[in-house]
């Protein structure tokens, strides 16, 4: 299958999985994430504010702050992702693609990021990732050089193989 066909297949699988089951699968994936040594040791984490068709991170974001972590969230600016710090109680505003984004100033000190948790359309167990097709995360992660990348997905998004290109950034671990 090519990338377009894979995206259509994953969209079909998401449609077959009831919202209650996706919520349960999200909770389980988040719990596994929080049990990793990388999560427990991280001081600054790059997370994402999930869309309805992604593993839900809405409770994880404030929980990370309660755990004493600094949380960065991506903001779409033109063809790039910019990172901004989210602080508990901060307002989020709807940005590009209906994503809730923090409104503060950009964070450019990528060296402080210990861990990035990345969404995707599909992953392989070996860390290949297929995104939505615009390359935002690949460009960001190529610049940021975060020491550990975790792809977060539902089990039906894990595939045996994916087409890959030289610019695709591979995850160190995939959790579903």
Quick structural overview:
This protein is 29% helix and 23% strand. It has one domain: NagB/RpiA/CoA transferase-like (Rossmann fold, 3-Layer(aba) Sandwich).
Features:
176 residues, 5 helices, 23% strand, two-stranded antiparallel sheet, 11 strands, alpha/beta, Rossmann fold, 7-stranded mixed β-sheet
Task: Give an overview in words.
This protein is of the alpha/beta class and about 180 residues long. The chain has a single domain (about 5-70, about 105-175), classed as Rossmann fold (3-Layer(aba) Sandwich). Helices cover about 30% and strands about 25% of the residues. It contains five helices and eleven strands. The protein has helices at about 5-15, 20-35, 35-40, 60-65, 135-145, and strands at about 45, 70-75, 80-85, 90-95, 100, 105, 115-120, 120-125, 130, 150, 175. A seven-stranded mixed sheet has the order 6-3-2-1-7-10-11. Strands 4-5 form a two-stranded antiparallel sheet. It has a two-stranded antiparallel sheet with strand order 8-9. The radius of gyration is 15 Å and the shape is globular.
């Amino acid at each position: 299958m090519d990338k377009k066909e894979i995206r259509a297949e994953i969209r079909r699988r998401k449609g077959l999985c009831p919202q209650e089951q996706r919520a349960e699968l999200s909770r389980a994936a988040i719990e596994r994430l929080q049990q990793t040594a990388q999560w427990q040791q991280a001081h600054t984490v790059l997370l994402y504010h999930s869309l309805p068709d992604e593993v839900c991170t809405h409770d994880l974001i404030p929980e990370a702050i309660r755990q004493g972590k600094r949380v960065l969230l991506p903001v779409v600016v033109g063809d790039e992702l910019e990172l901004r710090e989210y602080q508990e109680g901060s307002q989020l505003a709807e940005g590009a693609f209906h994503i809730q984004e923090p409104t503060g100033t950009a964070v450019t000190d990528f060296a402080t990021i210990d861990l990035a948790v990345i969404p995707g359309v599909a992953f392989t167990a070996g860390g290949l990732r297929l995104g939505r097709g615009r390359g935002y995360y690949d460009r960001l992660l190529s610049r940021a050089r975060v020491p550990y990348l975790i792809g977060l997905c539902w089990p039906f998004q894990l595939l045996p193989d994916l087409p890959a290109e030289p610019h695709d950034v591979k995850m160190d671990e995939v959790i579903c």
